[in-house]
Design a protein that fits this description.
This protein is an alpha+beta fold. The protein is 34% helix and 26% strand. The protein has a single domain, classed as Aminopeptidase. The protein has six helices and eight strands. The strands form two sheets. The chain has a five-stranded antiparallel beta sheet, with helices on both faces.
């Protein structure tokens, strides 16, 4: 099954493509894009490797993050979506929702909008029973998005390679359904 394209009120969430490389490299070159967890910008080579991994995942029908495109302007704002958090084996099997946006696209609700769409896709189309989201506690903005989406703290742990503290947040299908029914 091909990886989907989702549409929200303001965004197109579509698979990344080779044509995105230049714009993606410009976003990845922003130190703040990768501040959590790496504390540095990425090189073009690192971005090429990242994009190659995403394209391989799509070809294998494995969940992988997708482009976040501003529908009105067709600008690549970053990426978001579902993926397996293989860097944290202690919580596997699991599917994570995550996002990263360029500096100029933050604070506009795009992460919440994209996260909402991907969580819904995970529960309704992939029939997941739980979705996780992982962040460093200092990254208050990401933690706030997770809370808006209905996630709650499942555990604290340490990144096995980088040694930084991580909060693993979770949202079960039952709580997601209950939250949706409560807001309608």
């Amino acid at each position: 099954m091909p990886w989907p394209t989702l549409r929200t009120g303001r965004l197109v969430l579509r698979p990344l493509a080779l044509a995105d490389l230049a714009n993606l490299a410009a976003l990845h070159a922003q130190e703040s894009f990768w501040h959590y967890p790496f504390g540095r910008a990425w090189s073009r080579n690192e971005t090429e490797e990242f994009l190659a991994r995403k394209l391989e995942a799509y070809a294998a029908s494995v969940p992988a993050v997708s482009a976040v495109v501003i529908a009105e302007t067709n600008e690549l704002a970053g990426w978001a979506g579902l993926s397996e958090p293989s860097f944290l084996p202690e919580i596997l099997p699991a599917i994570e929702v995550g996002w990263r946006l360029g500096e100029q696209y933050r604070g506009r609700g795009y992460a919440t909008e994209a996260g909402t769409a991907w969580v819904e896709y995970g529960f309704t189309e992939l029939n997941l029973e739980e979705v996780v989201s992982i962040y460093e506690p200092e990254n208050i903005a990401s933690g706030s998005v997770m809370k808006r989406l209905g996630f709650s703290l499942s555990r604290t742990t340490t990144h096995p390679a980088l040694g930084v503290e991580l909060h693993v947040m979770s949202l079960t299908r039952a709580r997601w359904v209950s939250n949706r029914e409560g807001s309608s």
